[in-house]
Amino acid sequence: MDKQQQQLSFAKCSRQQRCSEWMFHDVRSDIAIEVNGGSFPLHKFPLVSRCGRMRKLVAENRGSDICRIELLNLPGGAESFELAAKFCYCINFEITSANVAQLLCVSDYLEMTEEFSSNNLGSRTEEYLESIVCKNLEMCVAVLQQCENLLPFADELKIVGRCIDGIVSKACVEQIASSFSRLEYSSSGRLQMNRQAKCEGDWWIEDLSGLRIDLYERVITAMKCRGVRPESIGESLMNYAQKELTKKSGFWNSSNQPNLVTEFSGHERLVVESIVSLLPVEKQVIPITFLFGLLRKSVMLDCSVACRLDLERRIGSQLDVATLDDLLIPSFCHASDTLFDVDTVHRILVKFSQQDDSDDDIEDGSLFGSDSLGSPSQTALVKVSKLVDNYLAEIAPDANLEVTKFIAIAKSLPSDARTAHDGLYRAIDVYLKAHQGLSDTDKQQLCRLIDFQKLSQEAGSHAAQNERLPLQSMVQVLYIEQLRLRNALSNSDPDHINGGAFSAAMSPRDNYASLRRENRELKLELTRLRMRLNDLEKEQVCMKKNMEKSESNNFISSFSKKLGRLNFFGSSSSRGSSSPSQNSQRMDTKVIERTVTSAV
């Protein structure tokens, strides 16, 4: 407060000193004008000769020799009144883009019109605004910056509206000129637009970044109505956001001033919500990385629900171009214990999966709408499925991540989205490793997400030996591996491999040696699986003996029934079905017979 008082007193002294320099002193002042705590000792005649308001106020105080008048709510304060007083005293000064808005407002306040004096301050400033300022984009921006402290007077005098019209008109002219410069003739002789050429007509983007958010919003809205290119508007929004949302470090460094930090957070929230409302409706105009950046800010600043839902919908419509780093949104909510914001990502995935097919009135689905998003293509589904599997593997080690949320993320995509389940199996394996206290029911729910038939040979071999999986899942993997082995054995039959296999590039002796190697490897693999099945049978016997000792006959019978339903080698409904070990021996005999046959 002491510093502010010192600054005010210093400004008052300097103003009085400037006033004494241009005001004549041979006539004693007979009126004192007070504006915002500052006093101007002046003369009635120069003021009343040009100012209608001063004429009325002086007439009301006609009885006293020295009149003291206070001007309340004068736009521009003491600085604006000083310029108006100079004009009344015929002191020359230059009208520029830095003071024309102040002069227009103060001339209207003091009623300095042609009714009281010809070629008065109001008409001069109006002429300057119309003939010079409105025809120059940079000057219009400068005047708008001056209007920030002159509202609502500047709006009532239509200074803001005229400057915005000047900016938009100039931007449209520059856009048309740059479009003509990008025209070129194709190989067929047709005139076409070169989309790859850089647009040089967007130099105004940097100028607009200095405006306050409310005026900037009005400029961009007018540009969208006048048909300015969506790409140019998108670049302007990104440039403005980058400048306005990276000023926080200076505010955080200010010690013992928490009010400044709170005020700036409110300013950031207003900027984010305004920019989201101004985003173009066309797709692919705004990079998805920028959209994710806005979403992180909106979550951190607790922006409105409509703002966040709009961003989630836009991101969901082009999620196939996102990266893993984009999805890793930190959790800013104190009520959540997870490291990352899983709920937001789940809503984005739901938006991506539930895109509608009602695009009849929109070409190529190129616009954003509440119910007009095109259904994702199979290519996009495959890309997003890989992205989701990587995301699940990244968040799986979080000890506070609930199994229901993990399953919800995994099931948010259609069942046909994943062509391979290796990534999903890896994510579930990481989750099981990090959450070893899960119940058998939760483990089974997780493993039901995996289609073991879509696992690669390497992932299937790992799953067959993975002790973290439930027993039922391990048996299912072994069964699928056995089916694959059968197919491999049948495809490696020498009678099945005819002229295409015995090509001219390989001799019969090489083919014979290759077949022997393949049969030997398959035999070893079959032996390994048979040993694994024998181990499982031994474990079953041990469990059965232990359960008999504890007199749990009901549990043993139900468990045996469940194991009896499990089918290892195909159909078991026939009466002559044999045990797994007998089937393994029979297949082993077939392998030996095939080897002997090929040797002959």
Automatic annotation (TrEMBL):
<dbReference type="Pfam" id="PF03000">
    <property type="entry name" value="NPH3"/>
</dbReference>
<dbReference type="Pfam" id="PF00651">
    <property type="entry name" value="BTB"/>
</dbReference>
<comment type="pathway">
    <text>Protein modification; protein ubiquitination.</text>
</comment>
<dbReference type="InterPro" id="IPR043454">
    <property type="entry name" value="NPH3/RPT2-like"/>
</dbReference>
<keyword id="KW-0175">Coiled coil</keyword>
<feature type="coiled-coil region">
    <location>
        <begin position="512"/>
        <end position="553"/>
    </location>
</feature>
<dbReference type="InterPro" id="IPR000210">
    <property type="entry name" value="BTB/POZ_dom"/>
</dbReference>
<dbReference type="InterPro" id="IPR027356">
    <property type="entry name" value="NPH3_dom"/>
</dbReference>
<feature type="domain" description="BTB">
    <location>
        <begin position="29"/>
        <end position="97"/>
    </location>
</feature>
<keyword id="KW-0833">Ubl conjugation pathway</keyword>
<comment type="similarity">
    <text>Belongs to the NPH3 family.</text>
</comment>
<protein>
    <submittedName>
        <fullName>BTB/POZ domain-containing protein</fullName>
    </submittedName>
</protein>
<feature type="domain" description="NPH3">
    <location>
        <begin position="202"/>
        <end position="484"/>
    </location>
</feature>
<dbReference type="InterPro" id="IPR011333">
    <property type="entry name" value="SKP1/BTB/POZ_sf"/>
</dbReference>
